[in-house]
Specification:
heterodimer; A: 440 residues; mainly alpha; Herpes Virus-1; two-stranded antiparallel ribbon; 64% helix; disordered N terminus; B: 566 residues; alpha/beta; 6-stranded mixed β-sheet; 49% helix; membrane (chain B); protein transport (chain B); transport (chain B); Sec-1-like_dom1 (chain B)
Chain lengths: 440, 566
């Protein structure tokens, strides 16, 4: 090096202006802040350098791996151009209204008929006498039976009625049909159709004796209604386990976000959260992951015939949740160690302390100047022996907030902790200002 | 204009509109491809879609009434019939129906009448009716769209519908221009205009008029105008993989590769899901090798540092970096396998040597020397017949009108090598001078001749990548407002007084990855300009020669009658 002959090379934390060796990074910044206030831009760049260095030192764990890979992947500027345009979802057109109009026009006919049948069914089953004769009478009261005298053939199969092929009536519409053409609706089933909340009673009867004789048409309409009803209230073991799992996932997503935020705050040296908080949060996410894992395993192991889609579905759910856990919940950022936090905090604290000192000096100077101007004396007497006034409302409030924070911490409501900590900080500042103004 | 994003947003819309709950998606063959181009399975699983079913599968399935069914189909008559049957005896609890294109009222009525159990909640048209290959590249996967000079009607229908969908999905109302010399282009352009007219209400309601921005342009070109590009061997990663291993819907089969890892019989190359691929698909082969090496070095360093897992802390550290590690590991292995395969093919098929002559033939005129080298290669047993066919094809195109044309003799040599000797004549018939309106080899245009001269003076940077596709000139002319109106007229005679910013190019007869690269470069070098490229398919040389064969099947030769030795 040519320069080395003329000048001695200095090393260490040098101040670029007065060339003093300040021994440490924080001292250098402080020195700069206090002595070279005019060179603010230099200070800024100095801070940036430390910030970068700090980042590299502190985040060198898993982000490091990613960074090296990114470098190897040669981040080209390819994204630069394309990222600009905000794209909205393309044109779409709904025909749902038209579809529903056509459907309801068609179904209305069925619906009125089905409703009529259901009202009759309700009346039939509600207070049905057990005695066969009374029952018949009851049935005829509800539904007027068709007069069968002129009917010679079964309307359904067109076979002639005779001694062996007797005439029967559909209990819902009252029309005539033969035994072969009738269908029977189990009374218990009928009861559940009328009142879906009723639990089906254990089968005590054979279908034919206690079932309702219906024609095929009425049977189909009633059955269709029943199917729709059932579809509405299918709730299997799978469903409830799945819902439980999803609700855990819904809790996990904001928890991870919160964790990231807390972690960042720690790395920034803020004091809102402490390490145990973040660890607790990590624990909670771990618990959620465990819960999701258990539930999805449970879903995958529900008894099912192999090769069916039900089996495939259960496997897919398990696969999806395993993927979710792996990608979202287990790839959490590593926490800093206690020592690292201490270091960052100390730096931050020192900086803040310096700031306060500067502030105090400024006020002091101002006061001295004022004192000189007006020749006042001994104003500041008794200022040192600060008497803590326990009745001070600010202090009282601060204590209350501290209690709140403790409580919120215990219940892992960290959003609240953050807000409360902020409040506390504001109060502290307010209190200090009050003290200062009392002094002066 | 990002076509991948456009399709993705439609699919996200579908999964979201059906609300929370277990979902199954019911698709046809084409919509399955459309979805799989933009979503990986693990991605769509995270949207609560757990089952994928085909409407045309004939297996008798069990009922799953607790599931929500998203139906995503092309509105064909077969699909309507199949869906009607499904709705009559529904297997799922509720249905959300989405058609990938315009569906007729009559068809909706048919479906509504089948929905007796009232299971349908939504019926919509979304316009994801094309395969989004890359953010600026789409395709319809149609090989053999022409019969002679005119369209296969079925394919014309599919392309016009698909392009209408593209416009709706990107919310663009363009002026349509087409290559005047091509009947196929004119037909397609008119058909799209007609569809746009039919859906004018839908377009006008959803696409705001903005006088400040020049109207977008849809440019319909014919592959026959540039039959050279698909014949050339490419040296950028994506194009090379397609030429040597064939990319089919973003998937590459490695089944024939001997030392491929067991779980890599088929690998997915998608720029959306694979960061390495996204960053390197346009790098050339040499760069890829270097990137790969540095990646391997990093990887090994990391792997080694993780190998000594001694303390609990080490172990924890390893587990914490594990997901990332594993992901990287998969990517690296995949690309090492693919690149390894490429380089072995390049070596065994003498592709450097072949490619050099290809580029010479495409870019320079020097008949005696070219013929001499070509003859030498024809007698070189180490060079495969398929390569020779391409070389003779290039010769045929370049020296079609040359006085000393020796094509018949070359065809004889091909015959004696047992190669596909009919291809050069068919190609001449398909895309010879009579079929082209542009000055492909730059013989007449004074400006082009000087440009070539200057290029020659400044020396060639890389002999393997001298060729630039004709599309580049066309697009640059269009962007500068210099594309001639008599050669590329607008449908309906619309005014072309402003330079377009948004451009959609569609090549009838298929596009290539080389052209996709060229569009990518244009997008980068002209700020404010946004080009999307599409084609009936994306060709490599093999599929292109198939396309030619299919188009010329059963056609009388009118321009190559002098070639008698077929």
């Amino acid at each position: 090096m040519a320069a080395s002959n003329e000048e001695e090379i200095l090393e260490g934390f040098l101040c670029p202006i007065c060339k003093a060796d300040l021994k440490s990074a924080s001292q250098l910044t402080n020195h700069f802040e206090s002595l070279h206030q005019e060179e603010q831009d230099v200070l800024k760049s100095l801070k940036e350098i430390f910030g970068k260095a700090k980042k590299i030192i502190l985040n060198n764990d898993d982000t490091d791996l990613k960074e090296t890979f990114d470098r190897a992947l040669k981040f080209s500027s390819q994204e630069r151009y394309y990222a600009r345009e905000e794209q909205t979802v393309g044109v779409s057109r709904s025909s749902t209204d038209y579809f529903k109009a056509v459907r309801s026009a068609r179904l209305e006919r069925y619906a009125t008929e089905t409703n009529k049948l259901l009202i009759r069914l309700d009346k039939l089953v509600c207070n049905m006498p057990s005695d066969p004769n009374q029952r018949k009478q009851h049935e005829q009261e509800v539904v007027p039976w068709l007069d069968g005298s002129s009917v010679k053939l079964c309307p359904n199969c067109a076979k002639a009625f005779n001694l062996t092929r007797r005439k029967h009536h559909c209990r819902l519409c009252g029309s005539i049909l033969c035994h072969d053409c009738s269908v029977f609706l189990d009374l218990n089933v009928a009861k559940t159709i009328v009142d879906p909340s009723a639990t089906p009673q254990p089968e005590t009867s054979t279908a034919e004796k206690f079932g309702l004789r219906l024609c095929e048409h009425c049977y189909n309409l009633v059955q269709l209604r029943r199917q729709i009803q059932e579809n509405r209230n299918v709730k299997t073991v799978l469903m409830s386990a799945y819902e439980q799992m999803r609700s855990l996932m819904e809790q996990a997503t904001p928890a991870v976000e919160m964790y990231e935020k807390m972690c960042q705050s720690l790395f920034d040296g803020e004091t809102i959260y402490n390490l145990s908080d973040v660890n607790a949060m990590r624990g909670r996410i771990g618990k959620l992951a465990e819960g999701i894992d258990l539930l999805s395993k449970h879903i995958a192991s529900l008894p099912v015939q192999p090769g069916t889609r039900q089996a495939k579905l259960q496997n897919s759910i398990r696969q999806a949740s395993a993927h979710y856990i792996k990608e979202e919940l287990l790839s959490l950022r590593k926490l800093p160690t206690e020592a690292q936090i201490e270091e960052v905090r100390r730096q931050r604290y020192e900086r803040a302390q310096k700031q306060i000192e500067l502030e105090r000096e400024r006020i002091e100077r101002e006061r001295e100047r004022r004192e000189k101007e007006w020749g006042e004396e001994g104003e500041a007497s008794g200022g040192r022996g600060q008497q803590h006034d326990d009745d001070n409302p600010i202090l009282e409030q601060m204590n209350i907030i501290r209690d709140y924070i403790k409580e919120a911490r215990k219940e892992l409501r960290f959003e609240e902790v953050a807000i409360l900590e902020q409040n506390l900080k504001d109060l502290k500042k307010e209190y200090q200002l009050q003290m200062l103004s009392n002094k002066s | 204009m990002n076509v991948i994003q456009a399709v993705k947003m439609y699919i996200i819309k579908m999964t979201e509109e059906s609300g929370p709950g277990m979902k199954v998606i019911l698709m046809d063959k084409e919509t399955t491809s459309i979805v799989s181009m933009v979503f990986s399975q693990s991605e769509i699983l995270q949207k609560e879609v757990y089952l994928f079913e085909r409407i045309d599968s004939h297996t008798k399935w069990d009922d799953l009434k607790h599931m929500k069914c998203i139906v995503f189909l092309r509105p064909t008559s077969e699909n309507i019939a199949l869906l009607s049957r499904e709705l009559k005896s529904p297997k799922y609890g509720v249905y959300f129906i989405y058609f990938s294109n315009v569906v007729s009222k009559a068809d909706i009525k048919t479906l509504a009448e089948c929905d007796e159990q009232e299971t349908v909640r939504e019926v919509q048209e979304v316009f994801a009716d094309y395969l989004a290959v890359d953010r600026h590249l789409f395709s319809f996967n149609i090989v053999g769209c022409l019969h002679g000079r005119s369209w296969n009607q079925h394919h014309l229908q599919r392309c016009s519908q698909g392009l209408l969908a593209l416009l709706l999905s990107l919310k663009r109302r363009p002026i349509i221009r087409y290559e005047a010399g091509s009947e196929a282009c004119a037909r397609l352009a008119e058909r799209i205009k007609e569809l746009m007219r039919r859906e004018a209400v839908l377009m006008d309601n959803n696409i705001p008029f903005n006088g400040d921005i020049p109207p977008p342009q849809l440019l319909v070109l014919d592959r026959r105008d540039d039959p050279v590009t698909p014949l050339l061997h490419q040296w950028t990663y994506q194009a090379m993989v397609h030429e040597l291993l064939t990319i089919d819907n973003n998937r590459v089969s490695l089944a024939g590769v001997q030392d491929a890892p067991k779980d890599m019989k088929e690998v997915v190359l998608s720029s959306e899901q694979d960061e390495f691929y996204a960053k390197n698909l346009y790098s050339n082969f040499g760069e890829i090798g270097q990137t790969m090496k540095s990646l391997m070095d990093e990887f090994q360093k990391k792997a080694k540092s993780h190998q000594k897992v001694e303390s609990i802390a080490d172990m924890k550290n390893f587990v914490e970096t594990y997901p990332l590690f594993k992901k990287m590991c998969g990517t690296v292995t995949k690309h090492v396998t693919v690149v390894g395969q490429l380089s072995s093919v390049v070596g065994s098929r003498r592709l450097l040597q072949v490619s050099e002559l290809e580029q010479e033939l495409a870019c320079h005129a020097d008949h005696t020397r070219h013929l001499q080298r070509l003859k030498a290669m024809l007698s070189d047993e180490a060079i495969a017949g398929t390569e020779l066919v391409k070389l003779v094809c290039l010769y045929a195109l370049r020296y079609e009108k040359h006085a000393a044309n020796a094509l018949p003799a070359l065809i004889d040599s091909l015959k004696s090598r047992g190669a596909e000797h009919r291809a050069p004549a068919l190609l001449l018939e398909y895309g010879g001078a009579h079929a082209r309106q542009s000055d492909l080899f730059g013989l007449q245009d004074a400006a082009k001749i000087t440009k070539r001269l200057f290029k020659g003076l400044s020396g060639v940077e890389n002999i393997y990548t001298q060729h630039t596709p004709l599309l580049k000139d066309t697009l640059e002319d269009l962007i500068k407002g210099k594309l001639r109106e008599n050669l590329y007229p607008a449908v309906g005679g619309e005014l072309l007084n402003r330079r377009p910013q948004d451009i959609i190019v569609f090549i009838v007869g298929g596009t290539t990855y080389e052209e996709a690269l060229c569009v990518h470069q244009i997008n980068q070098s002209y700020p404010g300009v946004n080009v999307v490229l599409g084609g009936t398919t994306i060709h490599n040389s093999t599929t292109f020669l198939n396309e030619v064969k299919e188009a010329m099947h059963g056609q009388h030769r009118t321009h190559t009658r002098h070639i008698r030795n077929l």
